[in-house]
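Incident log, entry 3
Record: CRISPR-associated protein Csd1 (591 residues)
Problem: checksum mismatch between cached and fresh output.
Input:
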Amino acid sequence: MLVKRLVDHAQRQGTSKPFHRERELHWQLEISTAGRPPLLTRVTDPAATRPGRGVSRQVPAVVRTVGISPNLAADDIQYVLGWADEKTKPERAASCHAAFVDLVTRWAGDPAAQDDTLAQAVAAFYQQNGPHRVAEPEGWTSKQGVLLVVDGVPATEAPSVVPYWSTEVARRKAGGAATGLCLSCGTVAPLVDTVPGKVPKKLVPGASNDAALVSVNERVFGYQLTTGLTHTPLCMVCADSMTTGLVAVLSSDHTSSYARQDSKLAWWYSGPPETDWMAQLEQPDPSAVSRLLTSPHEGKAVANGGKDLTRFHALTVSGNIARIMVRDWVEMPLPELERNIRSWFEDIEIVRARGHDRPLRLWTLVLATGRWQPKLKAYAEMGSKSSRRSERLHRQLVATALRNTPPPPELRHHLLARITNDGRVDAYRAALLRLSLVRQYGKDHVMPGLDETNTDPAYLCGRIFTLLQRIQRTALGDVNTSFADRHFAGALSKPDQAVTTGMREAQPWLKKLWRDKTKRGLSVRLDRELARMTTLLEAAALPARFTTAQQSCFVLGYYHQKARYDEEMLAALEKKNKEAEGGPDAEPDTP
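Fresh output:
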């Protein structure tokens, strides 16, 4: 199904020449029909960030491994000129050059090229021993690409290139294979033995060479120990279109990949959608997400009442040397995608401070799984080697969102470990923990904000921990090592000991507040609140040790209670500002 969808996408695009691909070219060999000496000049991309980067151009090309297989009108220096650097054997460079000259000779002799002046000029150049008249510039290597140019016109643009090159590729790739039924188009046609194109390595994370989606050049790689494409029968057109479609989707704007993540996501639609819901994961628009979340309550679906026939496709790939690994493949109707994306935003919803209520981006969620840097007050950068993020996390969260499934168990373990080590709990980490609990136990298990009716002992324990932290801060102000610094990690593993210690230490803090007449009322309120929560906790029977699910509930209870206190402090500050400015109608300052 994936092959068919890539072929369909390539044929809808209709912009690529058959058996052509983008290639980086570093040199241009200028051939003159007026008798001027041939000239090899370096070409560079002025917009490239890496110095010395060549120009990317679509040229005739087919997959080649260790064998000798020349491409038409543009190829390596060892093919075009027969030059060998210190890393190339002269015998191999000579063989490559001989094969290239033979290809050019056959091209010029083909009926399609009889009246093609570019083809005839290139053939004449080699017949007249032209490569021996080319002066060697500095800095060349045998595998750098060269484009042949005749009187200022690239030879790859010759009118006979496409028909002749298509015939030549068919001759090479058929490999004597029998005619059969194509897996993609369903027609009976000559089948290819190998895929005629490759995907540039820059498009596939982890690939060290240009990579192929289907490659079976050794028996150990094939089903039932067969080589070639015996169990993936493809005709020549579909085999080329498959690679063309894959290159198109991986080089489009509808892609997502993060530094030090092992894969790249690409998505497309069978028709133009009204809203690109996949893009909303990466860059959510508040108005679009709000419309999506409210659509069920209004009795209507966003995707044309569920009757939209447009289909959504998402492909996640990574590379291993010269092979492409399909990490995930998703295909679904647009209404189903809409429902799953809606569930995603519902399940990661979490209470946050006013002014920070934009929908959470997928990028920030992945970022928050990394190491927290207290001195910088930021998470380690995505590309940092010491960020301590899972390299699979991005594709795992994408799969969770698209398939509406629980995230992998390792996410919860990883987050709890990071929270224990960093002591950092914020909206992003809380949202991911809530997602894992909601997808496992249901949407009512834990709410986006503080739930005072929740009597789960782990949740209550987290709330009490925040209350103890507030009592200490209110009584003592900022201290070098707070109650949370000393006991947070222990509370996750042995909650009863942490709570018992906190209750004991809270008494002198409350007494200190009582002695301050200006804070006596606050002392009474905090004392009553602590007693009420403790009574609820005793009735719920606090376990000696928490499971990972209970640890997640503890963190969410801690975060929800802290968010409530932060909101109360903000409201008090706004009230104070209004009073200072002379009345209740005065505009509050932004905190």
